[in-house]
Amino acid sequence: MLELDDIQSGVLRPRPTPYVATYILLRIDDRSAGRELMGRLCSVVSSSAHPQSPAAECWVSVSLTYAGLEALGVPRDSLDSFAWEFRQGMAARARALGDEGESSPEHWEWPLGTRDVHVILTALSPDQARLDAALARADEALRALGGVQILWRQACHALSTEREPFGFRDGISHPAVEGSGIPGSNPHEEPLKAGEFVLGYPDETGTPPPMPQPDVLGRNGTYIVFRKLHQRVAGFRQYLKDNARKPEDEELVAAKMMGRWRSGAPLALCPHHDDPALGADPRRNNDFHYADDPTGYKTPPGSHARRTNPRDASVAGVVRLHRMIRRGTAYGTELPEGVLEDDGADRGLMFAFIGSHLGRQFEFVQSEWINGGEFLGLGDAKDPVTGANDGTGEFAYPRRPIPRCLKGLPRFVVTRGGEYGFMPGLRALRWLADLRT
């Protein structure tokens, strides 16, 4: 059984809709102050127990970077037991992740990707009042605590459309985790083994994944990936306009690239026209598979949604080994509807990916499924929406009587920074607080 009272609430809970969120990056300048902070956060961070309570909808989560664990004075043998991708950090993994050119770490927002980032606090709530209350608890933990500095804040909020900046309904798909008590959004997907997302339990291979040591530090923790992704909304709209034969064709092209209509309705269930009622219905908008569409006449194999979660496609034997919990929260102002010129504002998503295996979950999906196409026989074709395209890429999708090919795909999403974090269990937070040099 999952020890829900020791697992941070931010690990297993779906993002509320609507939502507001704040991300805060901290640097530990004094080891004793950092340990004191870990102790104070024990009363701020909520657990995954009681998933149906109103308080469960609002939470504060804490994650530590590898540099943060070093700053706290975690023993060397413990540090060496963490996943090697985590020890390297996201900036060092940039080439494997497609973070090159304008997305390379040299262009990231400071302090993202540097050794100055030690602690990542995340507060998430359905409304501003409850978020303010959660942030007040976090601020209380930091008050009068010298030796810990706030370096960076990012405020996020649901857009008026309750969609992500490109205009697509977000936050639809969430996997069921055995023992969590939280249902998944796809009735066709069997609950995944807890070890895929929480350390200390068997995963889909039948054995527990490697876990940081000692046991009290690693158990009930997990790895989390933070990404700040700038979205070129005007450029995306202009590309649709340039590649549509008529105005109504723009929405079809957008749906083919994403795998869903902007309403959230999946092409798998309504391939020829949008169905906003279906897209808004959480009981139906994720209730589908791809077994009846192997060629992709309904949902193109290269579309974003099908790439990132192929479900029961021909690679289904390995899909469950690459599933992640994904959460996105929008930042920045909305670009007014119909505007095709970039106004210079920074807008996009703060993305979080949760899983026990950084390598075979996040990094594999990012490198092989988003920035590669071999797994579906697509050659080197990249994800048409989030891939590291450079203006020369193509996106082809099946169509009768002949396929259609969109050329000259530019980069629509630019990485502005990111971090690999470790989300410890609540007992591990107390262990970190009680460390002695």
TrEMBL record:
UniProt-annotated stretches for the region Disordered: 272-310
Biased amino acid composition, Basic and acidic residues: 272-292
Taxonomic classification: Bacteria, Pseudomonadati, Myxococcota, Myxococcia, Myxococcales
GO MF term set: heme binding; metal ion binding; peroxidase activity
Any one GO CC term of the record: cytosol
Keywords: Iron, Metal-binding, Oxidoreductase, Peroxidase
InterPro entries for this protein: Dimeric_a/b-barrel, DyP_N, Dyp_peroxidase
Protein name, UniProt field: Dyp-type peroxidase
Every DyP dimeric alpha+beta barrel domain range: 58-141
SUPFAM superfamilies: Dimeric alpha+beta barrel (SSF54909)
Cofactor list: heme b
